[in-house]
Design a protein that fits this description.
- By secondary structure, this protein is an alpha+beta fold.
- The chain has a single domain, classed as VC0467-like.
- Helix content is 23%, strand content 29%.
- The longest helix has 19 residues.
- Strand 9 and strand 10 form a beta hairpin.
């Protein structure tokens, strides 16, 4: 990551954290974020849904998404929202949130979650028990944007308790992600916690592209109308006093 980009990220994270929302046909920051929950059937693993991984095809040359792996944290006919999980930065979370005393002396780094609202931050948390202030994504993985959730997370440890912080997110309007899938931009597969938290970022894209491409061809993946709710996810971690 270049120095100007690091500075820009630090500047964005030092500002008050915002709540991204999809309003009037576009993604924009809003406070608070409210998504209408619409529940239905769970799509097959090669269909887009909350808890699926999107793996960029080699044909994707947009530098914001080339060779990315994205975890969908929300998906419905209103749009979709995800976090890029394989782009770590050199920025330490302690530097991004300098007023948060609990982070001092820690070496945790911020990941780039996507190009939308880089001054919003989200946490992905792996926990055997649902963390307070977090929403489920799949299995034992949860998403949160609450500062208090981060504080409580810092006090826990163990192989089955992991977390990462992401600046920004990836967002799609109604039908946009389905169109991208139709033209071959993404392959889709089930997410698992070990991939998110244990596979080295530099190896993740190639490994998943090889694996999901085979599954995609075997199962005949194609897009469908959204069938899983966009949950009421609360986003945005502000600087702690």
């Amino acid at each position: 990551m270049t120095a100007p980009l690091v500075c820009a990220l630090l500047g964005a994270l030092s500002a008050p954290m915002l709540f991204p929302d999809y309003v009037d046909g576009r993604w924009r920051p809003a406070d608070p974020m409210e998504f209408a929950a619409r529940r239905s059937f769970a799509p097959p693993p090669t269909r887009p849904a909350k808890g699926r991984l999107l793996v960029a095809q080699r044909s994707v040359n947009d530098p914001r998404f080339a060779e990315t792996v994205i975890l969908l944290v929300a998906y419905s006919d209103q749009g979709a929202m995800g976090l890029i999980i394989n782009r770590p930065t050199d920025v330490r979370l302690a530097s991004a949130l300098p007023k948060m005393k609990e982070l001092r002396g820690r070496s945790d780094h911020v990941f780039v979650g996507g190009p939308v609202s880089p001054n919003a931050m989200l946490l992905l948390i792996r926990s055997d028990k649902a963390p307070d202030g977090a929403q489920p994504v799949f299995d034992d993985v949860y998403v949160s944007g609450k500062l208090e959730t981060l504080r409580k997370t810092l006090g826990k440890s163990g192989k089955t308790h992991r977390w990462r912080a992401y600046a920004g997110y990836a967002g799609w309007g109604p039908g946009q992600l389905d169109r991208e899938i139709s033209r071959g931009d993404w392959v889709i597969g089930r997410a698992d916690a070990s991939t998110i938290f244990d596979v080295p970022s530099g190896e993740m894209w190639q490994k998943l592209l090889d694996r999901f491409s085979v599954e995609w061809a075997r199962k005949g993946g194609d897009p469908v109308v959204a069938g899983v709710a966009i949950e009421n996810i609360e986003l945005g971690i502000g600087n702690a006093e």
